[in-house]
Amino acid sequence: MTLELRNLTKVFGGGGKRVVRAVDDVSFTIPEGATFGLLGESGSGKSTLARMIPRLIEPTSGEVIFHGKSLTRLPERDMRGVREQIQMVFQNPFSSLNPRMTVRELIGEPLLVHKRASGAALDNQVRDMMKLVGLNPEHTHRFPHEFSGGQRQRIGIARAIILQPKVLILDEPTSALDVSVQAQVLNLLIDLQRTLKLTYLLITHDLTVVRYMCDEVALMYLGKIVEQGTVEQIFKAPKHPYTQALLHDIPSIDPSQRMLEQVSLEADIVSAPWSGRGCRFSPRCPAAQVGECRTVEPPLVTVGDGQIAACHLVQTVLT
Ligand SMILES: Nc1ncnc2c1ncn2[C@@H]1O[C@H](COP(=O)(O)OP(=O)(O)OP(=O)(O)O)[C@@H](O)[C@H]1O
Ligand SMILES: [Mg+2]
Question: How far lies 65's CA from each of 69, 73, 265, 295, 308, in Å?
């Protein structure tokens, strides 16, 4: 039950509108039961990538392979079954829950839509789900505004798991929550993964969350993966200047691995836009000294045991 993305690409616009390559040739595989982190600044294409997996956004090109089967040309009626198996949890538990629906309706809705249960059977399943995610099952008739942010996100999670999916796509699941509540929700996700044997794609821009939750992590920059490795590799020996800049203040990094004395992101993505040529990070890269950086797009190459990075300045490791 691995989930594999092959050369996934999404181009928005065209026909007079500004063309944005929101996701550009992204490939990775998430083994069953693993947590794969996707890290990147705002606008790097994380949500677009996530929504292409259950085809809430149609990819421009590339493929998603689930259960050994390509989803690309699957008819819409078969995609319904796939969407039971691949569920999403969204960032904002305030806007993603219909304020006019009770908790029973919110958590029970997927059962009705997919004709899995109704009536008393639905009530029982909703109550079981509420217990599982740490909500009081007595509160089935309450409305979202009667719950705290953390509790609302528990409702969102209950909705996502009630159809017993295999994969959860978690798009910034805790970034709208108070810091004190974030850890509780992350711990709930860890417990659920263990009991329900779930596979996670976790989108975040929080390094602490990645470290706490993930097995492997990919860093996206302007639609492309610029580095990928195990959490241990990335937190000990990040190779790409972008990763090094993001992880600059993390003490675990081996000092001999630093490409420069200091790699900081002074320019931002708006003040130093990419021309479309060469390395997309080069306008902001304090290490971009070679001519190639401005003219040739660096390919993703192996830089360690399974670790890959796209930078002209990193040492390639032959395997
Ligand atoms: N429907 C759309 N039409 C045109 N452009 C879009 C559309 N959706 C997203 N984009 C653009 O695609 C790029 C990637 O957006 P996306 O929302 O995937 O980024 P993100 O990494 O999820 O950002 P954030 O961290 O802010 O959630 C951005 O430049 C965005 O403006
Ligand atoms: Mg997003």
Answer: 5, 11, 36, 33, 21
Percent of the chain predicted with pLDDT > 90: 75
- 117 C-beta closer than 6 A to ligand 1: no
Q: Of the ranges 127-141, 207-221, 284-298, which one carries the lowest mean pLDDT score?
A: 284-298
Compute and round to an integer the Cα radius of gyration of the chain.
Answer: 21
The full set of domains in the chain, from first to last, is: 29-53+71-217 (3.40.50.300), 238-309 (no CATH)
Tokens standing for residue 137: 């099952």
Atom of ligand 1 nearest to the CA of 223: 14
Whether the CB of 42 sits within 6 Å of ligand 1: yes
Q: Is the CB of 47 under 6 A from ligand 1?
A: yes
Q: Check: pTM over 0.90? Answer yes or no.
A: yes
Q: Whose CA is nearest to atom 24 of ligand 1?
A: 42
> Ligand 2: distance of its center to the CA of 171 in Å?
7
